[in-house]
Amino acid sequence: MRVRGHPVLGEPPRGREVTIYLDGRPLSAREGEPVAAALFASGIRIAHYTGSGEPRGPFCMIGRCTECRMLLEGRGMVLTCLTPVEEGMRLRTPGGGKA
Amino acid sequence: MSPDIPGEGDLWRSSWEAAVDGAVAVVDCREEIPCNPCEEACPTGAIRVGPDICAAPRFDPQACNGCGRCVALCPGMAVFLLDRREKSGFARVTVPYEMGERPVEGEEVQVVDGEGKALTGGKILKIRALGGGAPTLLVTVRVPESVALKVRGVRYRLMERDGFREVDKLPSLADYPLCRCEDVPLERVRDILRTGLKSLPSLRRASRVGLGYCQGMFCQSSLRQELAEATGREGEEIGSFRVRPPVRPVKLGFLGGGNA
Ligand code: SF4
Ligand code: SF4
Ligand code: FES
Description:
- Chain A has one helix at about 35-40, and strands at about 15-20, 25-30, 50, 55, 70, 75-80, 90.
- By secondary structure, chain A is mostly beta strands.
- Chain B is α+β, with helices and mostly antiparallel strands.
- Chain B contains ten helices and eleven strands.
- Chain B has a seven-stranded antiparallel beta sheet with strand order 1-4-5-8-7-6-9. In chain B, strands 2-3 form a two-stranded antiparallel ribbon.
- The radius of gyration of chain B is 22 Å and the shape is globular.
- Chain B starts with 12 loop residues before the first helix and ends in a 5-residue tail after the last helix.
């Protein structure tokens, strides 16, 4: 889901449509939007799992809470709310037996 | 000047007193978050955050002209205007409004506190937009002075349309994750406190609260509060985790000039 016609923010800027990969699965995203926003738009809300297997997802959206962290190939752990989408990014969901 | 300031008024005594002459900002921003649009919004320098962007804003009501730019531009909706010039037991409160449905001047609305709880009814006196990149509407309502400092918003028509839904069951407090990064429930912290541990650094090491990715930015205040309650001490005696720049977690490679 993307928010359209927000009463304060208006229309979101439209970046070029690109493909990113989450745990190997291709997803469409807009270049330049935050990775967290692109994942939300594809219905993905879980960024990682804690040690005890609890799911965690973006919370503060300003790079403070670190709940949105994911593994980005070539860069290690990143805060997805602050990381702009680039063509071909490969993300992994840490924890949950996946990484 | 009224010596009785309702509610948490003491925090905002200077705004409360200045408001007898007209609209003045009340800044309800207490968390130390990396944020300063209020400072940039203010044409008179009445609100200052300063070079440490995480500092809570300082406010000088004498310098404030009541323009409301800070109200419109604070992303946390943490500023409102108070105007007590009527001196009739009623005050005018101006709050930011960002919902889709546009309110109408002259209407009666419900005013709500910071938790969304209804306080009372109030009449909308004025609605304005500042323009210039600040689409947030400023809604001025007239309310009894006794609740004026508690008002944080207006609930427009929602009551008639949807009715109220109560949350029937909150998860138990014991399971509440006090530290989300390291996955530490509140009850675990209390268990450790029962062993008699008294200092913040040792509590941090024993519980791992504050040692995760957020480096204590989210959990530190909760941990300090638990320690204060368990030991009957004040926050100042407890101290805090050592704060080191940068504000956000940054990779060592980046600090070393690499690309991270
Ligand atoms: S109301 Fe205007 S003058 Fe007063 S603090 Fe806000 S921006 Fe500054
Ligand atoms: S803009 Fe609002 S939230 Fe940000 S520092 Fe100023 S008062 Fe606080
Ligand atoms: S959502 Fe809080 S750091 Fe990204």
